Amino acid sequence: MHRRSQVLYGVSATVLALSLTACGGDEGQAKSGIAEERAGDAESGPQTTSETPSAPSVKPQWGPALAMGQPAPMLYEPANTMGGKFEVSATKIVKGTPAQAKSLHWDKRMPGEPTGDTPYFVYFTYTLKEGKPQVANVDLGAHAAALDMNGAKVAERPTVHTGYVDGGCPVPPIYLRWDIGDSRTLCTVFAGDQSNPPARLAWSTDVTTDEEYMKGASWEWTAR
């Protein structure tokens, strides 16, 4: 009788062990299935059904062009005059010749200098409206820019930008001071290419990008 109890006990233990093994196997398969599902999700990448792509940025458009001789609608205070606010107007653009470009020694520029086969002699008129400049003779043409319709510079002022050649910019007189109401026309030169002339002429003291030039006042590039 005692021996039979031991046999029954052994059979019961075996059955219990098999049952536990079967339960453990189901749990392992469940865990394995979750892991495989997650792995599949990772391989297929994130699913985005409701998100919409962001719209591309739109380049700003030019405002209406000012006519030659028409002043910009605002006053400017150049940093290099150390005071004073000026009315600025572009008055004339004279297209030069390749011979003048050679006379300006553009073929001997240092590396990195702008290139061009055509000089443009650009005239601006500056009228002091407010304040008192501390420096009278400064390069106000340094604030000018020659741009295409996309706002890109297609003509630049060379480092040696006097333009003092036959038929080019005249040598300006020496001024001792500016008084309110004084108006002076000064010339600056741009190095450009005849095949790709500028479309707009801008002048500003506080821009850092082409887009900012496009938002400000500018004149239609009309060369003669």
Shape summary: globular
**Element order, helices and strands?**
HEEHEEEEEHE
The residue-averaged pLDDT reads 79
Distance between the termini: 128 Å
Low-confidence stretches: 1-46
How is the biggest beta sheet arranged?
4 strands, antiparallel
Sheet with the most strands: spatial strand order: 1-2-3-6
Could you tell me the strand content as a percent range? 15-25%
Number of helices: 3
Helix share, percent: 10-25%
Oligomeric description of these chains: single chain
Radius of gyration: 39 Å
Structural class call reads alpha+beta
Number of strands: 8
Main attributes?
224 residues, 4-stranded antiparallel β-sheet, 25% helix, globular
